[in-house]
Amino acid sequence: HFLGESLKSVVNEGKISCAEGTILLVAHQVKNSGKLEARRVDLAVGCDVLFQPKGSRHVFIRAAERLEVNEEEIGLENNGSIQAVVAELRALGPYAKAISHSGAIEATAMVERGGEVYLVAEEGICEVSGSVAAVCKEGVGGTVHVLGKRVHLLPETAIDTSGAMGGGTLL
Fold this sequence. Notes:
This protein has strands at 2-3, 9-12, 15-27, 29-32, 35-45, 48-51, 59-62, 70-78, 81-84, 86-91, 95-101, 104-107, 116-128, 131-133, 143-153, 158-160, 169-170. By secondary structure, the protein is mainly β. Strands 2, 3, 4, 5, 8, 9, 10, 11, 12, 13, 14, 15, 16 and 17 form a 14-stranded parallel beta sheet that branches.
């Protein structure tokens, strides 16, 4: 459980690798312009974040009561690359643009089913102009959720949930 009113940021401009575990970056603002590689990658923006390592959803965020919406800042920005079986980027905070993804997310395939990617702006805009892939070369494609109060898929956006045995799920 991560709780606090700090307005500090977490910024990754390098490479973070965790072969068998989880990379978890939590702050008032999170920016990844580097490379994240792990079995699971969770990026969360909020003042009250609960990380639950079991179950299908791992990141839960409770709304902050006293923060004003900042029209200029981006809560969670990914213009780097993420490689994982499951990638969850979740934001709840005082931002008009809660999530901006212009990088590359690749949810590597498991044998029977592709990976999972969740881009969830619980308030504000979720804007995607990068690539998101949850594919499987041997089985069914994976799952991609792009959700927000408003969702902007820009022309250069590429989302792929394909699989050799059938397509996956895109919401």
